[in-house]
Amino acid sequence: MKPRRKRFAFIVVAVAALALVVGLVLNALKNNVSLYFTPTQVYNKEAPQGRSFRIGGLVEEDSVKREKDGLTVNFVITDKHKSMPVIYKGILPDLFKEGKGVVAQGKIEADGVMHAEEVLAKHDENYMPPEAADALKKGETAKASAVVANPASAPAASAAK
Amino acid sequence: MAINWFKYSAPTTFYGLAGKLIPWFALSAAILFVVGLYIGFAVAPADAQQGEFYRIIFIHVPSSILSMFLYLIMAGYAALGLIFNTRLSAMMATAIAPTGALFAFISLWTGALWGKPMWGAWWVWDARLTSELILLFLYLGFIALHASIDDPRRADRASALLAIVGSVNVPIIYFSVKWWNTLHQGSTIKFTGTSMHVAMQQAMFTMLVACWLYAIAVVLARVRSIILERERNTVWISELSEVRS
């Protein structure tokens, strides 16, 4: 074998081996690398107990309630399977909205509510002008009402309930 | 008509070729930057969720893409230099590193400026942000390692290994938003298409091409300087008109 082919083979094998090792390490550290736990993971007791961690999901529709001091907010984070009530005192990011992504850091106290120290908004990767977003929303509500009118045609939607 | 590509792997011929190409790349980069910024600021509409803030994407995404691609190209040149022992490959790798580091830095910096108003935080230790930070450190490590060894040929070999090993990080950056829960959103540009309004796409792709052209122009200019520096004792350099005068 020519030395240059030897060097080429060595580099290919070394990079492949390294990629494998890094892949295995990252796979083993999966939970540590992820920024937050989903409510389902919290329910399954995969999240740390008795100390601060982050929980992420969507803000449940009609769940945001402000207390009289105007600063304390109650809301529910959901992943459509399980949900977790959160209480937070402080200023919310502008993108915080019902039905949108959110990541909250805090501790679950004895009352079963997460007392958050920090709330971050998570936005999606879709970019469109407001008119397009409105049109999309209208299309979705039209589809949803069609499903309600004719539930037999939408077995997936009824199964989700 | 077959072009003898090996002819251009010699610094002697590549020096002249690079000199001829630089003005074209630089000029088209400048024009496309102006066009891209015009589309980005004047033509593209505001975003439904983020309003005007999202416009930083037109520099954030191209620089992130460049920082990752330039790393792979740098590692490729470094590997070529190791395997074929060609002088020019190693010089190209050295010339790419500072531009790659610059784009990685711009990506992190604009990301922080974008993160504060939208997410509510300058920085979070999520997988996407952390792996991009590691990419910046890999670039800086490559530059530092190369600079710390006096013999340029030995410096080439040592830093080439670092570059090749670090290339494992690039797919991690790209897939981080898929593999783990991150605060950073998923990829807008996917293999299957984009999830973006047309005018926004045009602005982003124009800026992307402009950044590519800029990167090529700057790397070619830098590699010319490296050739001059490393081959300064050769006859062909002493016969160059710009050296003699």
Topology:
The complex is a heterodimer of chains A (161) and B (245).
Chain A: H1 3-28, H2 30-33, H3 39-43, E1 53-59, E2 65-66, E3 72-78, E4 83-89, E5 101-108, E6 114-122, H4 130-149, H5 155-160
Parallel strand pairs in A: 4-6
Antiparallel strand pairs in A: 1-3, 1-5, 2-3, 3-4, 5-6
Chain B: H1 11-43, H2 57-84, H3 87-118, H4 127-148, H5 152-166, H6 169-179, E1 189-190, E2 193-194, H7 198-230, H8 235-238, H9 241-244
Antiparallel strand pairs in B: 1-2
Helix pairs in contact in B: 1-7, 2-3, 2-4, 2-5, 2-7, 3-4, 3-5, 3-7, 4-5, 4-6
- What is the number of independent domains of chain A? 2
What kind of assembly state do the chains in view correspond to?
A: heterodimer
The percentage helix of chain B is over 70%
Helix-strand topology string of chain A: HHHEEEEEEHH
What's the CATH class label of the largest domain in chain A? Mainly Beta
Largest sheet of chain B: 2 strands, antiparallel
Strand order of the largest sheet of chain B: 1-2
DSSP helical segment count of chain B: 9
Q: How many helices of chain A does DSSP assign?
A: 5
Description:
- The complex is a heterodimer of chains A (161) and B (245).
- Chain A is an alpha+beta fold and 161 residues long.
- Chain A folds into two domains: 1-33; 36-144, Nucleic acid-binding proteins (OB fold (Dihydrolipoamide Acetyltransferase, E2P), Beta Barrel), CATH 2.40.50.
- Chain A has five helices and six strands; from the N terminus they run αααββββββαα.
- Chain A has a five-stranded mixed beta barrel.
- Mean pLDDT of chain A is 83; it is low at 151-161.
- Chain B is an all-alpha fold and 245 residues long.
- Chain B is 74% helix and 2% strand.
- Chain B has nine helices and two strands; from the N terminus they run ααααααββααα.
- Chain B has helices at 11-43, 57-84, 87-118, 127-148, 152-166, 169-179, 198-230, 235-238, 241-244; strands at residues 189-190, 193-194.
- In chain B, strands 1-2 form a two-stranded antiparallel sheet.
- In chain B, α2 (57-84) packs across α5, α3 packs antiparallel against α4 (127-148) and α4 (127-148) packs antiparallel against α6.
- The two termini of chain B are 37 Å apart.
- The mean pLDDT of chain B is 91.
- The interface between A and B is large, with 40 and 40 residues.
